[in-house]
Amino acid sequence: MKYVCDVCGWIYDEEAGYADMDIAPGTKFEDLPEDFACPLCYVGKEFFSEVSK
């Protein structure tokens, strides 16, 4: 599943993870830390939406 930041459009891809923040591939969005923030605009998880297929 992929999630997009509603503010800036950055996409978190669960399959890929995010190495720059030591998030392993396969890490589910709901398993990200509560203080996770978008690496581009720094908003929290509540500003992300599932990418529709």
Write the layout of secondary structure elements.
Blueprint: E1 2-5, E2 11-13, E3 48-50
Antiparallel strand pairs: 1-2, 1-3
Give a nutshell description of this structure.
The chain is mostly beta strands and 53 residues long. Helices cover 0% and strands 19% of the residues. The protein contains no helices and 3 strands.
When the domains are counted, the total is 1
Strand residue percentage = 15-25%
CATH class descriptor:
Mainly Beta
Q: How large, in whole angstroms, is the Cα Rg?
A: 10 Å
Uncertain ranges: none
Overall CATH architecture: Single Sheet
Major β-sheet annotation = 3 strands, antiparallel
Task: Spell the H/E element sequence.
Answer: EEE
How far the N terminus sits from the C terminus, by CA atoms, comes to: 9 Å
Number of strands: 3
Helix content: under 10%
The largest beta-sheet arranges its strands as 2-1-3
CATH topology tier name: Rubrerythrin, domain 2
- Shape summary: globular
- The computed structural class is mainly beta
Taking all residues together, what is the mean pLDDT?
Answer: 96
How many DSSP H or I helices?
A: 0
